[in-house]
Predict the structure.
Amino acid sequence: MRRSLLVVAGLLLACSLSHAETKDWTAFPNWIEAEFGKAGDKGVTPFFSYWGIFQGNPVGGNSQEVAYAHEMLFGATFDMEKLVDWKGASFKISGSANSGRNLSTSIGNVFDTAESYVCPTGMFYEMYYAQKLFDDFLEFRIGRMVAADQFCVLPAFGLQVSGGIDGNPTSLFLNSNFTSSPNATWGATIKVNPTPIVYVESGIYQATNRLGKVAYHGLDFSIRPDDGILMFAETGWSPTFGAKPADTVHDKDGKKTVAPAEAGLPGVYKFGGYFSTFPYAGFLGGSQQNTYGFYLIGQQTVWQSAKNANHNLALWAGVTYSPQYQVAQMPVMGFGGTVWQGIIPTRDQDQFLCTWMTGAFSSAYADSQAKGGFARPTAETVFDISYIINLTPTVFIQPDIQYIIQPNGVGTTPNALVIGAQFGCNF
């Protein structure tokens, strides 16, 4: 962790000194964004993202601790059309540097308190080729990738601090070999866009028990006989309700009245499922293959200011279901929340988040815990409130409060209060 922080601090200091002539501290991130944009104009778009979080649980959990964790992603996307006149083609490669501690280890809960805590080491991440065809009617990708980028994701998920829902629901990771940053496997996806607001997508990924192993650092590209496959299918609908074009009306005297356009209220709704051939060990013995699950998620803007579109309120919710109770640790997970942008009128880029999630443990998992002499788990619930302060379009700070009810689904562990702040940048 210390080495990664020193590297980041050194880069910030060097670039700050080179721009010492300006008193505007936002000049540095704006300069990076501009330089990355210039590179993108030539066909190579570098990117860098950093998420760091300090958290502590002054109340509840197995013990009271303070923890820090961070994730850094970096790489580049190559626009093959600009570089070699290969229309619609691109190539992406990336890596990550991660460090820190998981506060949930001290609390003893399942929904990780920090999305910034991931495999705590350097990892080779993505390496895939993407192609768009027939005016974006068809898209496909192939290479080293993660399912999390394409399936069971909503815009609101990426705003969260809690790892229970940030990016994707925790239940998918508990019940399958679902992949997310920085743990990529071999995979391929194909997406069809029959209309601008409807799509159908499917994907196939390598399912392996070597996922996230620190010793491999993401460089084990092998496909072995005991690996399986994980397949996803999803359909999505992105309607806009209440949109109206500008209209001009003339009365009987010829007087003209112009009715301004109304952007409407955008939404996104998705239904999907997965099927895996990978053998999962049963909680009460034996194993099971050919497992599957489903999910239904949606996000809808329900209010938008007529004077400022950046002032809006969106609701989101979803549920996941995996019926194989012998191997699915969390067969049912429900979640929902709100995203209120511009709650402070003078801060129209900031976002206020209220989030809820509940995960129910399977009876077989509960029986296995009871047989081991532990308390029998039922369900864990988390309420999360945070406020994203966008200092610049690329730099943010996010104070956060979480309340965890029945950590790990058992009443013997005191409910935990978690207080922290996430900070980061995305270029």
Remarks:
- The domain at 25-426 is CATH 2.40.160.180 (Porin).
